[in-house]
Amino acid sequence: GENYLVPVDADVSSLKDADAALVPISAVMNALKATVPVTIVLLDACRNNPFPPDAVVRRAPTASATPIGAGGLEPVRGAKALGNAPAADAGLGTVVGFAAEPGRPALDGAAGENSPYASALLRHLAAMKGTEFGSVMRMVTEEVYLDTKAKQRPWVNESLRRLLYFGVAPAEPTGDDGLITGERRQLLLTISDLPDPKRAQVELASLQEGVPLDALYGVLKALGTENIPEDPTDLQKVLDAQAERLKKMMSERAALRTDDPEIKRLVASADKAIGQGAIVTARKFLDDAVGRVEQTSDAVEEAEYLVKQKRLADAAIYARRADASGLVFDYKSAAGDYAKAFSLAEKWDDKLRWNYKNQEAEALNAYGYATGDLDALQHSIDAYRTILNFIPNGEQNRDWAITRNNMAVVLQTIGERETETARLEEAAGIFRDSLVVFEREKDDLNWAAAQNNLANVLLKIGERESDPKRLNEAVAAMRATLEKRPREKVPLDWAASQNNLGLALYALSEREAAGEHLKQAEAAYRLALEEYTREKAPVEWAMVENNLGNTLVSLGIQLNDKAKINEAADAFRGALEVRTRETFPVSWATSRLNLGNALSGVARFDMGTGALEEAAAAYDDALTVFTRQRFPMDWASAQNNLGSIYQTLGQRTSDAAKLEQSAAAFRAARQVYVRRKFPQDWAMSHYNLGNTLQLLGGVTDKPEHYGEAIAAYRDALREYKRETNPRQWALAQAGLGSTLHWLSMSDADPKTLLESIAARRAALEVLTVDAAPVDWANAQNGIGMSLLNLGNLERTDKYLDDAEAAFTATLKVFTRESLPMQWAFAQNNLGDIHWNRAGYGGGKAEYQKAIEFFENAKQGFTEAGYTIPIPLTDRKIDLVKKQIAKK
Predict the structure, then answer these.
(1) What CATH fold (topology level) applies to the domain 1-171?
(2) Rounded CA separation 468/709 (Å)
(3) pLDDT tens column, 542-598
(4) pTM confidence score
(5) For the chain, what are the domain ranges?
């Protein structure tokens, strides 16, 4: 066969006269042999067949057709030896170099660059100076082999009669590249001597492990050809181990950073040498780099010391600004600066990195608590967990306990805003773990802090449970805390525990009939305020003022003490001067909510609507912060309180729409207050809804609302038990009795009235004039009303004396000075008693007493500013006078 070079302008027609249209290699060879002693042809033209698959070639138009080879060149034969030619004239032989093996195509280089074969020739022809030409060509062969990752391997056909050297060569590379190239050439010659099976094993290891083929061969060369294992299994072990080491070196190389230009140069040259299999040379470069490191170590240590001082000084500046931000309650900025301080000090000072990360966690907690930002609270927990990783070997030591104790405080904050108790229980478990450590370490100060926190979380869990057990545990835990927090040594900590004791006592008071725990809570708050002054601790002062206000509202309502409720309102207004919406939006909303409660209490003594409308505005303000999504518990509380305001407004104005709004608000609160999670709040919302539905029945004259109210009270009584919730149980009984009374007005059924009387008398077994005077008086009034109506239904005067006694009893509480409206109703009811007696034969004296009481009632209604009943009272007076006139 013949190999042809195909000109760029050739086409299919060129195949019909190939010797003329194409370039036969044999003709080139013959021409060279005729003119030079050594014929060298290097062909980088081994490509795929450019012609159609079924094309044939003719050397001349009249020659026979021959199929074209699939790809690459066929071996080119040298000239036959000249049998008897004179020695002096004899040629030295022929060398034909192919870019690829016979029958295999050669690869092109990247666009605009040389092919792998041409690149290898240019790199290694310089080795001809002093190196036998055949060895140079073997270098070229293995260079292409490595460069193409074993995809292409050149081939040489030679028939030289002697070793061939060239005296002049291109300039050799110098410096680092010269060292690398020198070892690489030795590597290439080593590779050329390896048998194909070992080559295949190395190629497979390179492919599987993802390491350069050059480097893997370089490792074997460094081992020495005489030491390369003959057994394939042993060789594989060597290849696997060294491939793993190469991978590790390459991955670590990416992390190397240096600003020393000499070290940078040496390391880069070492990387290059390893990549080209020049392992020994790479080791030399790295030896020199280590020498440079040792030479400059003193200077580096000095520089490192200066860097450390600079970093710590910079960190201190950030921390100082963070401190200043905290002083103006900008906790978010403070957290960011503490985080920056931590990043600067982290690698230089263990104590400072702990402190800065801890301060970052505290600032994030303060910001999350103030704004309700749950992300900030979660980041605070993450920061504490980072600190826990600083503790060696997972030791459960004092630092471990303090950090987890602080982290649990954040968990509690999040748990208070969730409807589930999982985080609260988790926090309680952490506090108990901390107590064990602090007790072991005899650390009373931190033991008291953990005990204080445990009491707080028990309080939050207990508030959601029907059983007061946890609330009692919270009170006991807080008293135990105070034993380890003496006022003379830690006055502010002592004040914090007094405040928390007040919270626990306040919660427990809601489960009792008397107000003893409320009075104890008030005393605890007032003690706390002796240390938490507005000047010394404004934030804490505002917190305690807020808590004291809640207690004063409850005491004022229970004891019918207007002064205490007004004092509560003043406490909330004072707290709001510190708890601004801009700085403490959550605390602001809480105090606005509580101010609404106080104003609602004030409205009990004022028959106008001003205080009620102001209270509604306060609740609406709170709801701008307390959204259902972010603060479901607080949202439900605001809805409940708003329902109470609409309830009172509807009652005073006989506005059914307001009462419908009230019912809607209570039902909305129940969307959060589900019985399984919040049995007490669920019962409260049913009780409040019952009150509204009872009023709605009277305003609309629709008895079905009374039936709905009765169902609501009975639902409340499913959780309100006399043993655990005596006061709420009694109030629900009283409400049920009142509704049954009004229902009896529609069905005229004495049995309903008897049920009403029984329910109210049950309430009076708990409600006493000393502990709950207003509720006691209301129940007495209700009994009197039911007895009066029962007598009317049965047409008998036998209940009148008991009814009169009940109405008269109310006057112990409903005085003209303190509660003129209620006093007026009592006067009206006593007038009805005497009117009824007159009707049963009591005579003119009873009529006169009836008129006297009715006149008193009119005056009372006028003084209270509640004029709605006056026209009815006037009609009753007219009727009595007419009846007297008939006698």
Answers:
(1) Rossmann fold (3.40.50)
(2) 27
(3) 999 999 999 999 999 888 888 999 999 999 999 999 999 988 999 999 999 999 999
(4) 0.52
(5) 1-171, 173-295, 308-390
